[in-house]
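User: Design a sequence. Structure:
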C-alpha cells in the first residue's frame, strides 16, 4: 500500500479541514499553538478520552467453534461489509484440485475492531511473522480465522495491518512548505497522528511487537523534530494507562518533549500531578536546559526497546 494512500486512509473523518491558497506560515513548521484550544483539548481528554486498556484476551481460539468465531459466522450481517474483500483474498490464494474443489493456499486472519465491527483481513503468514502472540494462537489455522480485538481503535488497527504488509511505518505529516493547508489544519492532522500512534504503541505491546513499537517512537520523534511536543490529548492516554510498566519508553519520550521542547502554552495546573514531578526530575537530568535551547535533540536509543534478532 503506497504511503500516500495510507496517509489518506488513516484519517478519513477529518471533518472541518480546509485548505487555503494563502494560509500564513508560522515559524519552522507553519503551525501555531492556541493556548485556549490546547487547554480545552487537554481538559476534555481527561474527562472523556478513550484510553486503550492493556487487558488483552482473545475472544476466540483456533478450533473453538462454540466461541465468538461461531457466533460471528452465524450473524452474517455483521460481516457483510467485508464479504467482497474476503472473496477477493481467497480467490487470490486458492486452487482447485482434480475433483474441482477449491483449496485455500494461504490462511487468512480477519481482525474485527470496534462497536461497528470493522474488519481487516490479513494473510495469516504476515501476521505470524511479525507477532509471536499471533503465531502462538493461530499457528495451526489452515483456512480463515476471525479474531476480535476490543481494546484498541480502528485507526490503530489500520496502522498495524499496514505494518504487517510493509514491515515499516512512516505516517509523515503535511509538508512545512505546503501553504495550501492552514497551520490549524496541519496541527489537527499531527495531533491525530499522535493519538493513533499512542494507541498503536499499546496495541503493538499487546501483540509483543517491539520492532513496531520502536517504529512508533521513531514516528513520534520525526513528527516533533521541531520541538513542539505531542498533542496534549496523549497525556491522559499515557498517564491513565493501567499498566505503566508496559509503556515506560513512550512515557519517557512524552516527558522529554514537554520538558525540553519548544515552549508550550498550556496551563500546567491541568497536568497530572505525577507528570509535573516527572518533568521536574527530567530538568535535573544530564541533559541541561542550555543543551535543549541550543539544539533540541533526542537520542532515540534511550527510548527504543530491545529486539530479538
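Assistant: Done.
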Amino acid at each position: 500500500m503506497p504511503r500516500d494512500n495510507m496517509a489518506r486512509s488513516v484519517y478519513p473523518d477529518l471533518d472541518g479541514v480546509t485548505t487555503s491558497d494563502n494560509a500564513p506560515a508560522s515559524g519552522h513548521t507553519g503551525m501555531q499553538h492556541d493556548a485556549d484550544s490546547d487547554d480545552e483539548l487537554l481538559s476534555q481528554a481527561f474527562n472523556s478520552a478513550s484510553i486503550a486498556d492493556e487487558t488483552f484476551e482473545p475472544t476466540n481460539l483456533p478450533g473453538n467453534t462454540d466461541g465468538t468465531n461461531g457466533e460471528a459466522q452465524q450473524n452474517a450481517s455483521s460481516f457483510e461489509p467485508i464479504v467482497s474483500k474476503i472473496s477477493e483474498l481467497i480467490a487470490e490464494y486458492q486452487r482447485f484440485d482434480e475433483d474441482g474443489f477449491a483449496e485455500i493456499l494461504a490462511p487468512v486472519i480477519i481482525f474485527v475492531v470496534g462497536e461497528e465491527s470493522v474488519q481487516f483481513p490479513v494473510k495469516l503468514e504476515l501476521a505470524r511473522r511479525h507477532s509471536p502472540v499471533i503465531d502462538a494462537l493461530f499457528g495451526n489455522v489452515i483456512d480463515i480465522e476471525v479474531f476480535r480485538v476490543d481494546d484498541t481503535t480502528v485507526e490503530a488497527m489500520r496502522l498495524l495491518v499496514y505494518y504487517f504488509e510493509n514491515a515499516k511505518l512512516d505516517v509523515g505529516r503535511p509538508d512545512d512548505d505546503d501553504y495550501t493547508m492552514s497551520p490549524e489544519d496541519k496541527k489537527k492532522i499531527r495531533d491525530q497522528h499522535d493519538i493513533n500512534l499512542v494507541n498503536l504503541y499499546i496495541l503493538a505491546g499487546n501483540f509483543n511487537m517491539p520492532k513496531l513499537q520502536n517504529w512508533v517512537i521513531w514516528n513520534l520523534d520525526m513528527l516533533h523534530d521541531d520541538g513542539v511536543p505531542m498533542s496534549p490529548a496523549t497525556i491522559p492516554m499515557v498517564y491513565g494507562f493501567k499498566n505503566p510498566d508496559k509503556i515506560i519508553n513512550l512515557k519517557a519520550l512524552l516527558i522529554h518533549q514537554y520538558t525540553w521542547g519548544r515552549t508550550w502554552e498550556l496551563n500546567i495546573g491541568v497536568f497530572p500531578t505525577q507528570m509535573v514531578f516527572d518533568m521536574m526530575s527530567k530538568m535535573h537530568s544530564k541533559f541541561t536546559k542550555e543543551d535543549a535551547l541550543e539544539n533540541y535533540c533526542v537520542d532515540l536509543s534511550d527510548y527504543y526497546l530491545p529486539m530479538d534478532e
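The chain has two domains: 1-16+23-55+174-309, 57-150. The first helix runs from residue 3 to 10.
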